[in-house]
Specification:
Helix content is 44%, strand content 22%. The chain is an alpha/beta fold.
Length: 327
């Protein structure tokens, strides 16, 4: 693919809700974006590079034409699941981007890395990324460290799915008459899901079970004012999050800590105890608001890479840079 104008960069954020794409140049910044609501498929080999390219090619062609820039020489692709499901992307995507667009430098990253860069930029610290799931990632700029992110059956402690499950457990305890139950959460569960004896049959067969559990997290937050059981669920979630952040945050210097992800929209019922826990476990770290989201992180990384330097540590599972593709 050829084009006129200055060489550009391509930034791609691939997540559970679809694909977001930005093109731009180092001098002019972001010049256009597109979005697809179709998530990239995951098959036997992991994330499917062919399906990603099927969506990406028409979006990039349109964007570069509208922006008046040449085909991108640099690309950054951040993908959910990349750490464990990214083998096919590592093997095939750089060459595919080279053939299709002439891209010569490609950075492939886990979405935790792009979330980190979007929130803090290339500086030492830790980021808690929380939505349906949860992962903490940190760096001292010499290596990456991650904690949790093990999924709703084995971890993701403090996540939306974790909070929702704990809230529903408290509802079922109230239904049974066991200690630790919450009548308010029971009422909310019946409003959301119907009669609670039917809940296991509705929940267990669902392929989107983590998202269904997470959908109850806002109900837990809504009950926290005046319901000690709901409030305790959120305090415990905050403790789990802070534990994960402490596991990855640099122990020396003046690191920053930020929060990113949709779970934090549930508000102070979670944020207040979380800030307290972080202050206790990480007194040397400064808590700061996240500057942006994972797409912003992709754009920042693509801009730095196109300018000639990406000041972040490489990691086989989390971040790799491939050069001189497409010859």
């Amino acid at each position: 693919m050829s084009g006129r104008g200055p060489a550009g960069f391509l930034a791609v954020d691939s997540g559970g809700s679809g694909l977001r794409v930005v093109v731009g140049t180092v001098d002019r910044g972001e010049l256009g974006r597109r979005e697809s609501r179709a998530p990239v498929r995951t098959g036997a080999r992991g994330i499917e590079p062919g399906h990603l390219m099927e969506q990406l090619v028409p979006m990039v062609r349109d964007l570069t034409a509208e922006a008046g820039i040449a085909a991108p020489a640099t690309a950054v692709v951040g993908a959910a699941g990349f750490a464990t499901l990214g083998a096919a992307l590592r093997a095939e995507l750089p060459a595919a981007l080279g053939r299709e667009f002439g891209v010569r430098t490609v950075a492939l990253a886990a979405d935790a890395v792009t979330a980190y860069v979007g929130a803090l930029g290339p500086r030492p610290g830790a980021v808690i990324a929380a939505g349906t799931g949860l992962i903490a990632i940190g760096t001292d700029l010499t290596r990456w460290r991650r904690a949790d992110g093990w999924g709703h059956l084995l971890g993701d402690c403090g996540s939306g799915a974790w909070i929702g499950r704990a809230g529903l457990e408290a509802a079922l305890r109230a239904y049974d008459g066991r200690p630790g139950g919450s009548a308010r959460l029971l009422a909310r569960a019946e409003e959301s899901f119907g009669p609670v004896p039917e809940l296991p049959g509705k929940l267990y067969p669902r392929p989107d079970r983590p998202a269904v559990l997470a959908s109850f997290a806002p109900q837990v937050a809504a009950c926290a004012d005046g319901d000690p059981v709901a409030a305790d669920v959120l305090r415990t979630a905050a403790r789990h999050m802070a534990d994960s952040a402490a596991a990855v945050c640099p122990a020396d210097g003046e690191p920053q800590v930020a929060l990113t992800g949709g779970l934090f929209k549930i508000g102070d019922a979670l944020l207040v105890p979380l800030r307290e826990e972080l202050s206790t476990l990480l007194p040397h770290a400064r808590q700061v608001p996240a500057a942006g989201d994972p797409l912003r992180g992709c754009v920042r990384m693509a801009t730095d890479l196109a300018a000639g330097a990406l000041p972040l540590p490489s990691d086989e599972a989390l971040l790799s840079v491939v050069t001189a593709m497409g010859d």
